[in-house]
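REQUEST FORM: STRUCTURE PREDICTION
Request ID: SP-0412
Submitted by: Lab K.M.
Chain count: 1
Length (residues): 302
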Amino acid sequence: MKINIPSGVADSPHRNNLFEEHFLQAWLYTHSDQLPFDTSAFKEQWLKQISLNQDQNECAEKLFENWPMNLTKPIFIKGHALEKLGLYQIGERFKSDIDLLIDQESLHYLENRIKALNGHEIKEKKWWGNSHKKIFSLSQNNHEVVIECHSQLFYHLPQIDWQRYRHTQISDQLQLEAHLLFLMGHYVFQHNCLKIYWLLDIALFIEKFSKQIDWNKLQHLAREWDLKVSLDWSLSLANELANFNLEIPKGMIKSNLDIDFNFAWQTKQSGLRYWKMKHKAKGKIANSLKYDVKWLLNKTRK
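STATUS: Completed
RESULT:
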């Protein structure tokens, strides 16, 4: 895929800093033949990511090989899952951790396995927005490998049985539609279109699986999960990132949205426009207000 980089970014004297903030350096380095500028400065980051990714993958093999048959197999999500699907070669995508969707019984077993390997839990202050997560740290060669365990995909949907969206009974991947919508919700609903490398995930996923995706099912899930805004924004922005070359059904790409491509490349999380966009990204006003109130209560709690 040849990605669309706005002229304001490509011609900026701070271009390399912007690519670093969006975690795109390694991917751009491995696709340098498609770019009109030199990417040799990104080689060091690419090599660092190869080393880290190798240790993350080795750690994952140790943790999840010979998983007990009586326990539900964890589902990989985000970077590790996308690498396993072949969207990225090792080192191309920044992976800060290994993310899992896991049930309580399997989490207890995994926690014991991590401790047996001299790992430990990373304690963090709990509130409504992160109560469904538990984070662990392990040492693998010269790297810290972080394992982030999720009991649910989105904090505003605790009632959903996420395991029913597993690709197959023994698969460690989500169904294509659930996987894609999770990537969209993670990018828009959870993180307010903050990083372009998350948008690249979506574009590459659609490019690879567009003919296999049930687009009607995807739209149904977006309504069920209250992620219609995430779906609309992600399809529009991902298609523009891919130079409008993605195979998306006619009528699914909306116009006159509250987000635009140039704004998505910004890294500044402040200002009135960002505040408006952040709240519209939550979809329903009730979701936005609930988040604000619980966030404020958490901040004022000792």
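NOTES: The chain has a mean pLDDT of 93.
Reviewed by: T.R.
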